[in-house]
Amino acid sequence: MHLLVCGGTGCRASQSEKIAENLNEEIKNIGLENEVQVVITGCFGFCEKGPIVKVIPDNTFYTQVKPEDCKEIVNEHVLKGRKVMRLLYVDPVTKEHVSDSKHMGFYQKQLRIALRNCGFIDPENIDEYIARDGYSALGKALTEMTPQQVIDLIKKSGLRGRGGGGFPTGLKWEIAASNKADQKYVVCNADEGDPGAFMDRSILEGDPHSVIEAMAICGYCIGASKGIVYIRAEYPLAIQRLKVAARQCRAYGLLGNDILGTGFNFDIELRYGAGAFVCGEETALIQSMEGKRGEPTVKPPFPAQSGYLRKPTNVNNVETFANIPAILLKGPEWFSSIGTEKSKGTKVFALAGKINNVGLIEVPMGTTLREVIFEIGGGIKGGKKFKAVQTGGPSGGCLTEKHLDTPIDFDNLIAAGSMMGSGGMIVMDEDDCMVSVAKFYLEFTVDESCGKCAPCRVGNKRLHEMLEKICSGKGTLEDVEYLKNLGNVIKDTALCGLGQTSPNPVLSTIEHFYDEYKAHVTERICPAGQCKALKLYTILADKCTGCTACARSCPVGAISGEKRQAHVIDAEKCIRCGACYDKCKFSAIYVQ
Amino acid sequence: MNKIKSIDDLRKIKQDLENGMNIREKSNSPESLVQIRVAMATCGIAAGARTVMNTIIEKIEKDKVPAVVTQSGCMGYCYAEPTVEVRIPGKDPVVFGYVDSKKAIDIVEKYIVKGELLDGIIPVNYQTINDKI
User: Fold this and answer.
1) Residue A57: which of B20, B68, B72 has the nearest Cβ?
2) A309 HSE (CA, 13 A, CB side)
């Protein structure tokens, strides 16, 4: 019997380590330590309901487990074979207890390739990875195939870069392979910076070996003996698991010299980034690795020609690498049978925002937004109305109700004015103000812009200022036009991917929610009621009892009136803090 | 740790480790496999169900029988413990009573693998709510 405990960052934050410890202790108490094994795995993806404990072989899926619950799980389930009903997942529609993850809406539509081992194996145990065909793909490549054959296979599979750009991976490898040099490098881009995206972290935490194996395969293809993982220092758990994995590989001889007796040499090292968004851009990443300031450089030359230390360098994203071993073992036909015409395979998305099932999911390309949000994601929190979904982070745009049935793939998202990005999906409901959302993303890009080129450094700052102006009720219709023009200029003139995509949140919200911008600038109201400066507080005279609670709570003394008489708010003095609204017991304060 | 020096070494290690992981692989699709349930309530455990379960697990691992072993609560046949229920896809479930290690091996070898009938089947004397619907 195995008890799988989620050891991802989310569940660890809710004491999953303590849970594993308690389970072990309870099992020891009943004397079953030789028969029951507690395994800490990577992320199961269902972070909303974490920490998760899965009991094998009967496949029971316990949610929101607390360290105190361990005794009950061991005594009831392990010892007596009775499931602990109160810890089972309750289907939100049927209200029935579901004990098995296969019957949960969250997992039914998913297909896991990149996440195949997450939540299934112990990431700190190389043997479990090997038992799941680990390093067989590397073995196959080294002993049965030439580098060109492997590249052809990847090209045939149709795999495209999962970091956001969607460049064909096989082609990228081929270009790097064709450039001659005494030393080449394979770089894994683990500088995941989109707000709300955490798939790369989860893969590295849950299945680090799949990335190491794929890097070695890539090294074989392009002729590199060195691999570097560029990872942000903010991911301590992923770093630790990678280090453990690399150490185990070296002990087994799967990294180092003469791997599997084939004469192929490859080893990896880790480089830590300080968490700058721009360093996810490959040229900036390479600059940062060289110890320079993280600023992008002009392409060409592309990294495949002259990258790290001026040597040919191939940079791929974590998720791209995680797909490689599966493609090699199952064949390119299998992979290209999944997905849409131009986007093959699956994509991992991080669901966040106003959605019931926050978590990490992997679905075939071509799944519609409706399926992702309403079937897997379980719909909008609190039964509210869906308004928009933001994909691609600060580089992407907002998609609305009319896009719900669009199959998700690289090209469809771009056609709809957004992009795949690394796969963050932030869901918004009727209470979210789209102008504020655009402002939030601009704030992020203004912060993260490296400042090398003027369009991004100055332009984004101006965009942000104008959005502030609109949110504070001082904007005009011309400002909205100006936003559009400037946004397009930045897109056309910025140096790197960051600047070229940073106006997207503004442009797409203007396109899809023009009425909301209009309401802000012409009627001076915020339809979602989010923009503080556009709120107007008044006291309803018939409801006011003159208790003076509001007048006493007002920090600027804007409320006046006699005791037991209706009070009045001076709109000129009012700073719209809402203190009076919170204090009033008679619902006498009206907000517009 | 010994170094893995060739692809054959890797394959060998994989084979050695596979059984340990099989239990997790199989649990993803229990309907299509033979399911063996050992009644593990207080009465069953007192009568030796744990030894029986371990014997079965070892036996199916050794013979590579595609089956999942789970435990269940008390089936009500306390007089006949330890009891083992076997569900072969497409067949009616069968409950064996008074199972000891020898009998457990017979169940796997003869009933599950060869499909022979065995003594010691407890006749079904009730319906569950699921049968009625």
Assistant:
1) B68
2) 9
Question: What residues contact residue B109 under an 8 Å CB cut-off, 6+ apart?
Answer: B59, B63
Q: Between the CA of residue A535 and those of A187, A210, A436, B104, what are the distances in Å?
A: 50, 52, 14, 75
For helices A318-330 and A208-222, give the axis angle rounded to 10 degrees: 80
Of A166-175, A206-215, A262-271, A352-361, least confident by mean pLDDT is A352-361
Report the candidate in A346, A352, A350 with the shortest Cα–Cα distance to residue A360. A350
B43 part of a folded domain: yes
The answer as to whether B64 is a domain residue is: yes
Contact criterion met (CB < 8 Å) for B1 and A121 = no
Using the beta-carbon criterion (under 8 Å), do A261 and B5 form an inter-chain contact? yes
Name the token pair of A420.
């795949």
Q: Measuring CA to CA, how many Å separate A286 from each of A154, A216, A279, A293?
A: 24, 19, 8, 10
Q: Rounded to whole angstroms, what are the CA distances from A37 to A28, A447, B44?
A: 11, 47, 22
Given a cut of 90, whether residue A536 has pLDDT beyond it is: no
Which amino acid, B21?
Answer: M
**B58, part of any domain:** yes
pLDDT of residue A167: 93
Pairing of strands B34-39, B84-87: antiparallel
For B55, the enclosing helix (H) or strand (E) is helix B49-63
The average confidence (pLDDT) of chain A is 91
Average pLDDT value for residue range A26-31: 88
Q: Is the Cβ of A85 closer than 8 Å to some Cβ of chain B?
A: no
**Predicted confidence (pLDDT) at residue B1 exceeds the cutoff of 70:** no
Q: What does the pLDDT read at residue B133?
A: 47
The structural domain count of chain B equals 1
Instruction: Indicate the DSSP class of residue A404.
Output: T
Reported as a single tens digit per residue, the pLDDT across A45-61 is: 888 888 999 988 778 89
pLDDT of residue A487: 95
Full domain range(s) for residue B101 = 29-132
| Chain A residues lying within 8 Å of B28, measured CB to CB | 59, 102
Computed over its alpha carbons, how large is the radius of gyration of chain A?
27
Q: Do the chains contact at A139 and B70, CB–CB below 8 Å?
A: no
Measured CA angle at A422 (ends A50, A515), to 5 deg: 95
**pLDDT tens digits, A232-286:** 999 999 999 999 999 999 999 999 999 999 999 999 999 999 889 999 999 999 9
Residue B3 lies in a domain: no
Report the DSSP pairing between strands A226-232 and A264-273: parallel
Ordered structural domains, chain A, with CATH: 2-104 (3.40.30.10), 126-335 (3.40.50.11540), 346-429 (3.10.20.600), 434-523 (1.20.1440.230), 535-591 (3.30.70.20)
Q: Could you please report the per-residue DSSP string of A118-163? A: TTTS-TT-HHHHHHTTTTHHHHHHHHH--HHHHHHHHHHHT-B-TT
The CATH number of the domain holding residue B46 is: 3.40.30.10
Q: Which residues of B touch A128 (CB under 8 A)?
A: 17, 20-21
Q: Looking at residue B124, what DSSP letter applies?
A: P
**Amino acid making up residue A501:** T
Residue A18 confidence class, pLDDT cut points 50, 70, 90: very high
Residues A434-460 pLDDT 10s: 999 999 999 999 999 999 999 999 999
- Answer whether residue A489 shows pLDDT above 50: yes
- Element of type H or E holding A193: none
Interface A–B counts its CB contacts (< 8 A) at 87
CB contact under 8 A, B23 and A56: yes
Please give the backbone phi and psi of residue A284, each rounded to the nearest 5 degrees, phi first.
-65, -35
> Helix or strand or coil: residue A453?
coil
